[in-house]
Amino acid sequence: MYSHSKSFLLSQVALATIFLAPEHPAIAQEQAVRVAEEANTTLAPIVVTARRRDEQIQNAPVAVTAIPADELSKGKVANLEDAAARAPNVLFNGQGGPFSIRGVTSLGISGGVDRQPAVGLFVDDVFLARPLGYPFLLEDLERVEVVRGSQTTLYGKNTIGGAVNLISREPGNAMGGEVSATIGTDLDRRFKAAFETPIEGTDWAIRTSAAWSGMDGYINNIPTGSDVSDTNFFSGRTVLTGKIGDDTDVKIIADFTRDRSDGGLWYAPLPLAFDHKSEHDYDAENRVAAGGLSVRLDHAFDSFDLTSITAIRGHDMSQFLDGDFTSSPAIVQGQTEEQRQFSQDLRFSSNGDGPWRWAAGLFYMHENFNGTQYFDMASVPRALMSRDVFEQKANTFSAFAEVGYFVTPELELAAGARYTYDHKRTSSEISSPSGTFYFGAPGAVDDSVSFNNLSPEISATYHVSEGNIIFGKISRGYKSGGISPYIEADGSANKYDPEETTSYEIGAKATSADGRYALAASLFYTDWKDQQAVIYTTPFTRVYRNAAAATSKGFELEASAQLTDELKLLGGYGYTRASYEDFVDDVMGMDYSGNPLPFAPKHSFNAGLRWQHEFADAVLLTAGLDYTYRSSYSFTSDNGYRQSPTHIVDAHIGIEKDGWSALVWAKNLTDETYLKNYFNYSGTDMGAAAPGRTVGITLSKKW
């Protein structure tokens, strides 16, 4: 049945490309220019770096959604969850994934402190090794790119599901700045200031920005009568750009984020959760600070370009919360992390116009990670709580190369591979200074593991004309193995092997001759082997195992249309059928084989409408409407609870003149109730619901 559906989709992709592609490229370009001169009804060009080089999104043979700077603001796309909603077959859950693309995700809260992503997050091309170090606000960015499908060759390990790129906004060639203030329901507040200027007498320029965002809680905690789940975020960023000589560009970026929210961890039995209530006797504590510094050098030689990115990053985190999720003072649980990483990325790429295209590079990363989980009686002082202390030092070395050749002026064949070597030294110690042994029997292990992997990729791209392509690729993905914080029943270290995916994808991108319509389509199949999972060794102890195998198959469609010079339409649809092929927990007597993968809705849909009208006195009126749909999905492997289908509607309307603007916005306009996360605790379904409707106004001034 799937083969028939695949054939049908291929035919539709081909037909769409042929239909939208111009018969003669030269004539098409003349038509596009003429139409653009007559009326501003062409789509604005979008440049992406999804393949580590600048190219128009419609010429890039990769499934990617780009969210531009004018959409990255309060009331529009303000965080990673908002960004995921704009891309088909994508979900973001801060604790349960966090990213899932095409059903491929990673261990969430069940993984303890050792959570390796399956979808890589990159800030200005720098990989963030740990999800709890991700930025909270999407502030002062040029764009966000959501790249779907395995990206191991160009990006590296732990991108078996895809990659998300956050690209900082660079300073311009003139002095300028902006300030803004937001007020909304539940005292939703946000303040931002940014300033940029060229440095007089030099080729350098600088931009710096700072933002604070906070909101009062929307969950009523019954025992105290107070509103909880408040937010308190700060974000700062500085970008310095310049030149050394005529051929070397330099970019230095420093960023910092801080979270002083109460954690958003107010889990409750589902009837209470859906009513935005909790019954905790212990006030949650949450402290997170994360940031980094990167230096990028781009030098143009006569026959090739060199890029060097040197970066340091890290985060500190401390969370404590009510461990029994009830009003009885019984249990407290917590987690602390301290992570530091250094990375060096060195790339070489061709810069000529000949039929050959090539790229190669070397990568090194060192990580120090210390994490501790706590679980004990509420009456026990924190210093005496039962705990699992986990420490890890990891080194990653990799080398990659890719070569492309235009067999004809239209057809490019490419092949590449990345070799990766991982070495990890880990210690884990379970102890109970209180003597309650709530974390299990005491034990300590110290061990090391090493892995090596070769991940190849081959692809073919047929360029029908500018903005019209057909492409296909086969790639292998690699996610590192390691040693978990848990200890085996025999007292040895709990080692687990890497995951591997083999992905097949074909797609097409089409642009109409007048530049008003664009379409992108992809068909994919992913075979996921040796999936890392948490299983039980006894009814009370658990470990990591390469216990599961899964497949994911489906397709995606994205379209945009500049209907008139004032009206633009955007849309995307994704279909994913992702399920376990083999997953058995013998100790608990559970067979998950055939179950759908967690965080993998079968259907995802998003649509957006943008309208603007300029009056005679240079007053610009803007408006937008966004709708996001995700069909039902599970949070856990047992498929015990499924999130109901969600329908989220956002809207905004604004007015601008002489750099001043006012934007009235609404998030979750229909007040949809749905869960942020779910788990089963001692037989009780527990969850925390997302916020309901939020309405606000943002005033800003730019100069």
Task: Outline the fold blueprint.
Blueprint: H1 2-20, H2 25-38, E1 47-48, E2 55-56, E3 63-68, H3 80-85, E4 90-92, E5 99-101, E6 119-123, E7 126-127, E8 141-148, H4 152-155, E9 162-168, E10 176-184, E11 188-198, E12 205-215, E13 219-221, E14 226-228, E15 231-244, E16 248-259, E17 268-269, H5 270-274, E18 277-278, E19 285-300, E20 304-322, E21 331-350, E22 356-377, E23 387-406, E24 411-431, E25 443-465, E26 468-479, E27 482-487, E28 493-496, E29 499-511, E30 517-538, E31 541-562, E32 567-585, E33 590-591, E34 603-614, E35 620-630, E36 633-634, E37 642-643, E38 646-657, E39 660-667, E40 675-681, E41 684-689, E42 694-702
Parallel strand pairs: 6-9, 13-18
Antiparallel strand pairs: 1-2, 3-8, 4-5, 6-7, 8-9, 10-11, 10-42, 11-12, 12-15, 13-14, 15-16, 16-19, 17-41, 19-20, 20-21, 21-22, 22-23, 23-24, 24-25, 25-26, 26-29, 27-28, 29-30, 30-31, 31-32, 32-33, 32-34, 34-35, 35-38, 36-37, 38-39, 39-42, 40-41
